[in-house]
């Protein structure tokens, strides 16, 4: 049940990013749900491979290349889906940062498992 709630909160975070950022568009809540799912899958399946492949440049930039990776995955999700659009690389990087901050803040409100 908790994972479904976090999925909905990630979709709400994506709608918030679309409201705050002029270069990001989400057409509906259903599109936001699908985009949150795709972003989650990309971060789970593709991001670890990219992190390993780009480790030298990440070390050279003292970790700042992670922002570029997050932006690229955010932009890729925008290109894969029709109801979620990201216009430009700068909007993708800033949107990914804003999305992660809002999603983190919203998921912090969800109580964890009780032992």
Low-confidence stretches: none
Report the principal-axis shape.
globular
Number of strands: 2
Largest sheet: 2 strands, antiparallel
Number of domains: 1
Give the assembly state of these chains.
single chain
Element string (H = helix, E = strand): HEHHHHEH
Distance linking N and C termini:
16 Å
Residues in helix, %: over 70%
Number of helices: 6
Q: Which structural category fits the helices and strands? A: mainly alpha
Alpha-carbon Rg, integer: 14 Å
**Global mean pLDDT:** 93
Beta-strand percentage? 5-15%
Q: Give, in spatial order, the strands making up the sheet with the most strands.
A: 1-2
What does it look like?
This protein is mainly α. The chain has one domain. Helix content is about 75%, strand content about 5%. It has helices at about 1-20, 30-45, 45-55, 55-60, 65-80, 90-110, and strands at about 25, 85. Strands 1-2 form a two-stranded antiparallel sheet. α1 (about 1-20) packs across α2 (about 30-45) and α1 (about 1-20) packs across α6 (about 90-110).
Features:
single chain; 115 residues; mainly alpha; two-stranded antiparallel ribbon; 2 strands; 74% helix; globular
Secondary structure blueprint with pairings:
Layout: H1 2-20, E1 24-26, H2 29-45, H3 47-53, H4 55-60, H5 65-80, E2 84-86, H6 89-108
Helix pairs in contact: 1-2, 1-6, 2-5, 5-6
Offer a concise description of the structure:
This protein is mostly helical and 115 residues long. Helix content is 74%, strand content 5%.
